[in-house]
Automatic annotation (TrEMBL):
The lineage of its organism: Eukaryota, Fungi, Dikarya, Ascomycota, Pezizomycotina. This is Phosphotransferase. Residues 227-468 form the Hexokinase C-terminal domain. Keywords: ATP-binding, Glycolysis, Kinase, Nucleotide-binding, Transferase. Pathway: Carbohydrate degradation; glycolysis; D-glyceraldehyde 3-phosphate and glycerone phosphate from D-glucose: step 1/4; Carbohydrate metabolism; hexose metabolism. It is an enzyme of class 2 (transferase). GO terms for biological process: glucose metabolic process; glycolytic process; intracellular glucose homeostasis; mannose metabolic process. It comes from Aspergillus saccharolyticus JOP 1030-1. Its EC number is 2.7.1.-. Belongs to the hexokinase family.
Length: 473
């Protein structure tokens, strides 16, 4: 019988000699992934300086993009808006109606999974695809502009852009594995509008929004204690409101010093100059294999697109060097990004009961990767998942702690969206514990800054920003 690709020889007990070597190497790797309190604090302090630097005129690692979102919603915003969210993994089109009653809204939506091959398609294909999905949505819901005007659209584009105003955004660089030529250095609003016009789709873009800004506005609207909006999904980032007087790079606009404006930090780029983050060989490998080596250093250690990949690289390394999963054919695990971060979470969750025999993980590894580890090996896999995810959560806390320190926020909430945060086993608890270590809250105090699930940023948040922009408030 022909052996299935990636199949494993019948599970045989691992020899003690091999096991010892594997455990020794796992221990070594664990040490390179461990970040103690002192290091967390050192990283955070450097982070604070870099956030400051990004607001100034000289170039630093963190872009600190000015979003031109100048107002906070009051709850009395009204109007009907289309919203489109082009993030890392899905495309979502919504029709949002902000109703007369305070805080009222209605929403209908369609979500499309973006195939991996789209990450390298042409600019025309990308904008054409988005325009077509908008058109399908309009047709299906029979949406018509009032008074023959065009339908207003808020476009959530979750990549770093330089904005002169809210209806404009020049892509600085693709992140999250996207690599479509002809977009970097260009205004994405103009490119999408061109695709809409070519198809006679009666839609015009009233606001370009980052997902973090949407999350901040939507969350602060429901809960004024939310001071930071953050995403931890495929990518990682945060936004907050800053006083214009503290942003030297927009001094020429002569805005009132106390006027608030949304800053999309784009802090996934933190430490691109490699000064503080303790990168190990696996991080270097991830960077090398990415379409933009040298970029998004922090994001590559923290975000969902990369934790599964880090784990995969470690498993393959242990197999090749010390005989871990001896007898298994790791072919299916050799492809870049073969493993999603949700796999790690599922493993860790099942392992939470110490007596678990890991039935689900066993089935999943066999079905998805064709490998059949012994129970001992499965437990090692769980340990590795914990090592990778613990580091991600602890480093994630540094960015949030840095914004809070810089802004003098000692109490408040952080609205977080993204599957790596909401679906990953214990991520929130681990990040909260690290935040406590960094900010040194007294043991008897409850957490002073807490993580809460963000409100719908790219639907309701984007519609609110659109309403504020067109003056429906
Ligand atoms: C992008 C950000 C975005 C974040 C979360 C990063 O890769 O650069 O704009 O907010 O991912 O989606």
């Amino acid at each position: 019988m022909k052996e299935a690709q990636g199949a494993c020889a019948p599970t045989a007990p691992v020899s003690q000699g091999t096991l010892d070597k594997v455990l020794q190497e796992v221990d070594r790797i664990a040490q390179t992934f461990t970040i103690d309190r002192e290091s967390l604090q050192r990283i955070t302090d450097h982070f604070v300086k870099e956030l400051e630097r990004g607001l100034g005129n000289e170039d630093g690692d963190i872009p600190m993009n000015v979003t031109w979102v100048m107002n906070q919603p009051t709850g009395y915003e009204t109007g009907q808006f289309l919203t489109v969210d082009f993030g890392g993994t899905n495309l979502r089109v919504c029709n949002v109606t902000l109703t007369e009653e305070k805080g009222g809204c209605e929403l209908t939506q369609h979500k499309f999974k973006l195939s991996k091959h789209m990450r390298k398609c042409t600019a025309d294909e990308l904008w054409g695809f988005i325009a077509d999905r908008i058109n399908d949505f309009i047709q299906e819901h029979n949406l018509r502009p009032h008074n023959s005007e065009k339908l207003p659209l808020a476009f959530t584009f979750s990549y770093p852009v330089t904005q002169d105003n809210i209806r404009h955004g020049v892509l600085q660089r693709w992140t999250k594995g996207w690599d479509i030529s002809g977009v970097e250095g260009h205004d994405v609003v103009a490119q999408l509008e061109q695709a809409l016009e070519q198809r006679n789709i009666p839609v015009h873009i009233v606001a370009l929004v980052n997902d973090t800004t949407g999350a901040l506005i939507a969350s602060a609207y429901r809960d004024p204690e939310v001071k930071v909006g953050s995403i931890l999904g495929t990518g990682c980032n945060a936004a907050y409101m800053e006083k214009c007087g503290r942003i030297p790079k927009i001094a020429s606009h002569n805005l009132p010093a106390d006027q608030l404006v949304g800053i999309n930090t784009e802090y996934g780029a933190f430490d691109n100059s490699h000064q503080v983050l303790p990168r190990c060989d696996f991080d270097l490998e991830i960077d090398r294999a990415s379409p933009r080596p040298g970029q998004q250093t922090y994001e590559k250690m923290v975000a969902g697109l990369y934790t599964g990949e880090l784990f995969r690289l470690i498993i393959v390394h242990l197999h090749d060097t010390v005989g871990f999963l001896e007898g298994c054919d790791l072919r299916r695990l050799r492809d870049v990004h073969a493993m999603e971060s949700s796999v790690l979470s599922r493993m860790e969750e099942e392992n939470a009961t110490p007596e678990s025999t890991m039935v689900e993980t066993r089935t999943m590894l066999k079905q998805e990767f064709g490998i059949e580890p012994t129970l001992e090996e499965l437990k090692i896999c769980c340990l590795l998942a914990e090592i990778v995810c613990m580091r991600a959560a602890r480093l994630y806390a540094c960015g949030i702690a840095a914004i809070c320190k810089k802004e003098g926020v000692t109490r408040g909430r952080v609205g977080v969206d993204g599957s790596a945060f909401s679906k990953n086993y214990k991520f929130k608890e681990r990040a909260a514990a690290a935040l406590r270590e960094i900010l040194e809250w007294p043991a008897e105090e409850e957490d002073l800054i807490t993580f809460v699930p963000a409100e719908d940023g790219s639907g309701i948040g984007a519609a609110l920003i659109a309403a504020l922009t067109v003056g429906n408030h």
